[in-house]
Amino acid sequence: MEIRDIASAMQKYLSRSNRNTAYIPYTTVMQECYAWYRNLTDWHNYFIYNGLRRVKQERAKLGMAKTVCEDWASLLLNEKVAITTDSQAENDKINEVLEYNNFSVEANKLVELMFALGTGAFVETWNGERVVLDYIQGDMIFPLAWDNGVITECAFAKIGGSLKDAKFTVIMHTLENGEYVIKTVELDGNGGVCRPTRPIQVAYGLRTVEEENKEFTSIIYTQSSVPCFQIIKPNIVNNYDKTNPLGMGIIYNAVDILKSVDTEYDSYLNEFNLGKKRIFVKSGLKSIKMLDNAKDKRNSIVNHIDPNDTMYYTLNSENDDGKLPIEIFDPTLRTNEHNIALNTQLNLLSRKVGLGAGYYEFQGGNVARTATEIVSMNSSLFRNLCKHELVMTTALTGMCKAILNLYNLYGGTNFDIDTEITIDYDDSIIDDTEKAQQKAMAEFNAGLIDQVEYFALTRKLTREQATKFVAEMKATDTMKEVSSLMNSFGI
């Protein structure tokens, strides 16, 4: 069973449960985007008729689909993104969970795949001791219920290290009486249920195993309305199916431009392959007579052209009459025309995927990012980045609440899940951080702002967070050291 067969199996399984599966064929769109992301498409293979037969060809690939997804992931969720809460205890627990689950690395990978496939998900699970995060890519996500595009119930497929057993695991998050129930079932390639071979585990059970027909391998009644999953997707309309709760890959509407980019790049390489210098020589010049040998007094023939040298081409003796002894073929390469054409397509691509005009440029044989480190707040890149951050903020905030809630449910803690959660994105491409700090110092020195406002501006804190920060520093005499440091800067 291949990964793409999971969608078919899920459609059969969910149809038996009277679930809406009309959206599932959309996974074929995901697979098309994934093919471009992997740089493995049927379009790159083609045939040319040379007058005698059809010759198989393969277009050169610049791989811009993956580059686009990489760049958006780097802009949206990189190592500089910070998640903080008002309470230190909650903040420490969230950071502990994120570090344990390698969040900074795996979340960035998920966002990259999200921009390719259109959807991704963070899923939280309690493993008996702590919270474990799963990073689910779009073609493994199957919405069960949604409202206004917000997925409220969902199933997630998970594959182990091998598909040779033709089985996969499905974790279903459904609402019952306003509270989430998490059920796990194993399916085969035909969507049939693989009966559990081990005792069914029921956590906080409210009903008997028999009532569930022993279909599920585990049932968890969370007794909570807080979801243990968060869906992320590009903040753009799914123009393939506007009623579909799944997102649209950022490269789907740019496929024609991606084709043009690779067409221009392939032509560029062919320009050098077909336009290389060649030397045509008459057949009689390929050999000459040597001087008499002192021993045998005979003349010998020796080849003065290396038969393995592709720069020389010896003409057939029947067809070289009237030809010069040596003719040099040295065509002019159309590099400038190709550079212009390729840069035109890259400019169209960067605009189409929301990175703004001129983000990419082909120069020196490489695709370079031409955007400056400081991006104008009026640029389309900045506005599109802010759009995507809206979706990401909702997901990351929900993830933090789910983490705290699971510890309260199963870890015996009493965290405040309604604590204020702040997502501080990397704004280094928008703001000049060093200049902002210098400006804040100058305003503090002039008496225009106080210490609280200074730290709010330079550390990206809210007014309330900065007030607590200053109070804690004063209580521990740390403020004396800070004041001394600020004085050394003339403040």
Which secondary structure elements does this structure contain, and how are they paired or packed?
Elements: H1 5-16, H2 27-38, E1 45-49, E2 54-58, H3 64-76, E3 82-85, H4 88-100, H5 103-117, E4 120-126, E5 131-137, E6 141-147, E7 150-158, E8 167-176, E9 179-188, E10 201-203, E11 218-221, E12 229-232, H6 255-274, E13 278-281, E14 287-289, E15 301-303, E16 312-314, E17 326-329, H7 335-352, E18 360-363, E19 366-369, H8 380-410, E20 421-424, H9 433-445, H10 451-458, H11 463-475, H12 478-488
Parallel strand pairs: 10-11, 13-16
Antiparallel strand pairs: 1-2, 3-20, 4-5, 4-12, 6-7, 7-8, 8-9, 9-11, 13-17, 14-15, 18-19
Helix pairs in contact: 3-5, 6-7, 9-10, 10-11
Describe this structure in words.
The protein is an alpha+beta fold. Helix content is 36%, strand content 21%. Strands 6-7-8-9-11-10 form a six-stranded mixed beta sheet. A three-stranded antiparallel beta sheet has the order 5-4-12. Strand 6 (141-147) and strand 7 form a beta hairpin.
Tags for this entry?
491 residues, alpha+beta, 21% strand
In short, what is this structure?
The chain is an alpha+beta fold and 491 residues long. 36% of the residues lie in helices and 21% in strands.
Helix content: 25-40%
List the strand order in the largest sheet: 6-7-8-9-11-10
Shape: flat
Q: How does the helix and strand content classify structurally? A: alpha+beta
Low-confidence stretches: 204-211, 286-292
Radius of gyration: 32 Å
- Would you count the extended β strands for me? 20
Strand content: 15-25%
Distance between the termini: 68 Å
The count of helical stretches stands at 12
Average pLDDT works out at 80
User: Major beta sheet, specifics?
Assistant: 6 strands, mixed
